[in-house]
Design a protein that fits this description.
Blueprint: H1 14-22, E1 25-31, E2 35-41
Antiparallel strand pairs: 1-2
Length: about 50
């Protein structure tokens, strides 16, 4: 589920979907020749 042989679906897959669902926010920026930046944020409540 983490791999696809279809080039048009290259960025899709179960791994990306899981991260989108689990994280509070997910930002992906990509620039040709420069690379890709992925920022994932998750809030945690600390109970003491």
């Amino acid at each position: 589920p983490l791999y696809t042989s279809k080039p048009e679906l290259e960025r899709s897959g179960m791994g990306f979907t899981v991260m989108e669902t689990f994280m509070d926010s997910l930002e992906v920026k990509s620039e040709e020749g420069k690379g890709t930046k992925v920022v994932m944020k998750k809030k945690f409540n600390i109970v003491s």
